[in-house]
Design brief:
mainly beta; Immunoglobulin-like; 2 domains; five-stranded antiparallel sheet; 21 strands
Length: 525
Amino acid sequence: MVDMSTIRHTVNDDAANMETLRKLSGFGQKVNIDIKINNPRATYTTLDRIEGTVSILAPTDVNFDEIDIEFIGTSKTFVERMTAAAAVSGRSEAFHQFLKLQDRSVQDAYPAGQTLKAGVLYTFPFLFVIPEHLLPKVCGHKCKSMCVREAHLQLPPTFGDHDREAGMDEKALDDFVPEMASTRYGVHVRICRVKKGEDDEVIRSNIANKARRVRVIPATEEQPPLAIDIDDKEYCIRRERVIRKGVLQAKAGTLVMEAIQPPAILMRARSNSSTPAMSSARVSLRFDPADKHALPPLLGDMGAKLKVCTFFASTARSGFPDKKKALQDPSQGMHSEQISLSSRCMASMTSDKWTTYESEKDSHRDSGFSTGSSIPAPSKDYKGARFFVTHLDVPISLPTNKAFVPSFHSCLISRMYQLKLELHLQNKGLVGTMDLKLPIQISCTEGDGDWSPRRGSVVEGMEPCSEEELVDGFFDSRTMQIPDEAFVGHSDIRRSSPPVTPRHELPPSYSFFAPATGGQTVPAY
């Protein structure tokens, strides 16, 4: 009779021996790649240096052709299209690689024979500087205006990267980003072999690869305010409301509520301070009384709410996003959320604190006597007599328990903000509400210190120029001439049509077809 314990012991020994042989021979083991960033930060911004080392350890001798160390930025979107026609329904996707920085210094550190020896640890340093702008060729599709193209060539912030490894001091905060849109940055390492296929097509096969994602919030400037039409359905900068003396009583007058786009909310890409990002909005009120005895109504609370709008598309957009188009175009989508910012009591603003003007002509004072406060235009019921004006300053601060990104527009994704101001009125038991919907931007600076374009320079020891040197250099005489042929290289200046370039030399741009992850696949543009 066979002893089952002996058979079990023999099987276990054989398995252990096979595992030992596998470890000794390196069979079934992968090349280990470790990406280390020196002094890592929770957030990087414009002109920051991302410096570190890549360590590679191979279990067996591995021959390779290239080791690529790159800093890559990508955007990915998908739109669910629900229509009555089954052939049109489904998911459309788009993928855009808008940034690709390569550290060529790794080629000088290749081991002899371009072979990774078994058990030998190889270390390659890398250095990247986050650029201020993207290359013009990244936005190669048609745009309605130069303003749209310039907006598309700004670096978008890290967006919707929910599964990124957060830093030790970083909390996972709600960023109002739907799963349909994401923008990611990271250091990518790839070990590959290169061979030529049919028609001299270059084919790369990966031996090993690894990526380490980082959070990037670029520095952005405040953009000019939006031009808003009177009949705009998305924004409202002026309201008029008839005020009555009481229930079923005569009209007391007309109240006008007006405001302009407030200054941008200035946030910091990284800050050690717990002070929230702030701004303020000024609301102008005008009361046109129906008779000489009527006084301005009593004011209640002034509430401020922020609407966060995310636009995304599966095709490159030629203009700025629009809510109406996003709802009608099956290749576009929109996601919005609204949060309360503050509520202030305005009951102290009694009628004696309003400024009285005896006529419209009296309000048009000389600028030397002006207080700088704008006076709203008369209401449609104004009779040319006395009226009252006051101004309310509404502070705006972003909650610290939410994650916000600057306003931006990329080829596929946009983030916009809208400020809603609600004024409650109280007049002899009658309660009413007037509201304004204003566009507002969120801009970003580097941090607590001053922003300096020299801080990200890869040239060590370079001293910044003084203001006098910059002025003198500006007025230096210069000559212009046609460059020598040796310096023209691959310039496109004199070409009437774009050159035909091999596929592997093309700039980072849209993939013509989105990655096939199920659903319908459509061209990116």
